[in-house]
Amino acid sequence: MIQRIFKLAKTLYLSVFMSVAYRAMRHKRKDLTSERSPGSIKIVCRYGLKNGLANGAVYNGLALETLGYAVEQPDVTAAMRNPFKTIFCRKGGLFIFHCAAPQFLLLAWPLRRLIRSGKTIGYFAWELAEPPRDWPKYKDVWDEIWTPSRFSAQSLAKLYDCPIRVVPHVLLEKGSPRGWRKGEEALTFLTMADARSSLARKNPRAAVEAFRRAFPNEWDVSLVIKLQANQASEEVNTLLSEAEDDPRICIIQETMTRAEVDRLFSDAHVYVSLHRAEGFGLPLLEARLFGLATLATAWSGNLDFMSEEDSVLIPCELATMRDEGGVYGEVTWAEPDVDAAALAMRRFYEDPAYLARIAKAGWEASSPERQLARLAEALRIPDEPLMLDAST
Description:
The protein is an alpha/beta fold and 392 residues long. It has helices at 2-25, 29-32, 52-66, 104-108, 150-156, 199-202, 204-214, 234-243, 258-267, 282-289, 338-350, 352-365, 368-379, and strands at residues 41-44, 71-72, 94-98, 119-123, 144-147, 164-166, 187-194, 221-228, 249-252, 270-273, 293-297, 312-314, 316-322, 330-336. Strand 1, helix 3 and strand 2 form a beta-alpha-beta unit. Helix 7 crosses helix 11.
């Protein structure tokens, strides 16, 4: 009973807060042109959560600094718990908020005294072909939307009529292409999934099934699944039960440091993503930079940086189903061909030279130099300045 009252009170508070914040922060773009001034790029995020959004914000900040821009990274994690707290940074320039649209006002409120001095941008990623039904259609709060892939941009364009720009994630850390020494070590496949963003979408169960079909009897292979799940659920329990009788499958549920996650990449040979939908697919790009061969569903945001020349793309069919995790409801997304994935896994096992070629091709195609060139091109605006200091 107490929990229910608390939940209702929280919902009422957020509803009132959003209404007040929206009225206070909306603006007419034409009237603000003279107020804006050049400045730095502020990448605003809840960095304290250390999740995928925070990782993307950190990576984008490093990439923009590498291109020569002055970058600030205001962390609003603590400020979001106190509506009276404000955060200060340099005026002008760009205010880029890495979040989902429903959280935009929560992140922007601590900077409410500053954001009118520059250009306001929502950096939103979306994973499905159809736009989110429950995202707000705010008017005159942000100037434009940035998103990491063409797939995400096409979806969001169905909901919003403001300018939408594809600004990809960029990773600068670089390892070297990996090879597999058959007979000397186990061939290790790696996949990652976060139950908070739907295990059905990430689809690790398909990776388990493909692995077992590919290797019914072999013992010099392993599958590592990094699983993020705050609490037990039916879909988590199903995954655990399907893998528990196979000692070759290792499921890691504990929270890991960045160095520990990097070690998972370094110890693996192939990254597998039999996803049903991705807004971008940041772990796939990470894996390529670490030198892993990549095997992924041939659909959605990952196709912005993956091709048949540098990856193994698994064919799929679109299917309509209900998301088991309850995150998306009924949705149409990809159903990857598990048999094709199993054959691809088996080919890596039978032909280590082929694995090495794919790993090297993906590593070269995802080089920091190529990524930075794509980012620089995305930031070019023919008819409108980026509102940045001339010295940056």
